[in-house]
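Write out this protein's structure.
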Amino acid sequence: MVDGTNAATPARWEQLATQVLDGRPLTFDEGLSVLACADLELPALLAATYRVRHRVWGNAVQLYFLKNAKSGLCGEDCGYCSQSKVSSAPIEKYRMNDEATLLASARAAAETGARTFCIVTAGRGPTDRELDHVVQVVEKIKRTLPLNICCCLGLLEPAQAERLAAAGVDRVNHNLNTSRRFYPEICTTHTFDDRLATLQAVRSAGMELCSGGIVGMGEADADVVDLALALRELKVESIPVNFLHAIDGTPLQGVDRLNPRYCLKVLCLFRLANPNSEIRIAGGRELHLGWLQPQGLYAANSLFVSDYLTTKGQSPEDDYRMIKDLGFVVAAPGPETAAAIRAQRAAAESAAATGPAADASCSVPCGPAGA
């Protein structure tokens, strides 16, 4: 991690944001300079990045609710994961949740104001029986609840991706996790190219991509920039940015390379590199951002609400309060991508020209059921 002694002047961040807003992609060297930003200039970097966030996403915050539908029992060796075969972490282990449990979790997601419900399973990839089960559950959720559905089921074959798309899955999460160069340091049972193949299968099936990474595993700044630019190349719609929560019993236990200021710079990097993508502050946000957590939303526009896979998050009530204190709002059910939101706003503006229309901000007061 660099110390920022050669960082650009504060005015440079405004210029960089303007260039991004004008459509010029962030370069690799500019990405490195964001991570090297001197702490003294961090407020200026956040202010410039907020301009980019606001142009596309306004002050809306999209909430995700995650359900770990199958825990542990995974044969892969991902070094960061408490569910892997190389982990001795004392986590709960269970087979696939039944339909009633998953439907109850989906209802809880809707009640907390989440726009998207994420079904996650541990393992290399779904069995035929597991895929049948997920498809059946997704079809019922889509018929009864105003939720977007994201599935994270491991490596997928093209035919499996097509079945998920036909069931109504909106997007599939499959994180690249880190750069191609660093990937062999964290996993050997599958490759970076295996992950790319799954993302390509998802895209070919017509679903949106949700793919991000984990920062703080021992990678270099160049690896973080490489990841941000690789996701841009793939035109990923949703990017979860995780900060390593080093769980005891995993190969990365005890690793602690992050501070809150660097985490904010990482979020700024991903926003400036991917201005039209949803940037989500994901696992480890409470642990590593600490009291600076609210400032992360000047770059990001999405949060996981409540818990993660095998670790606890802060309460939904604390998330609502944080969002409200910023003057932001929770996004109501509706489209997730920047393009779809722009189309919705355009339709509302067109309707407003001929008569009264509802606000097109797609937002509701913070809290469940508008509380």
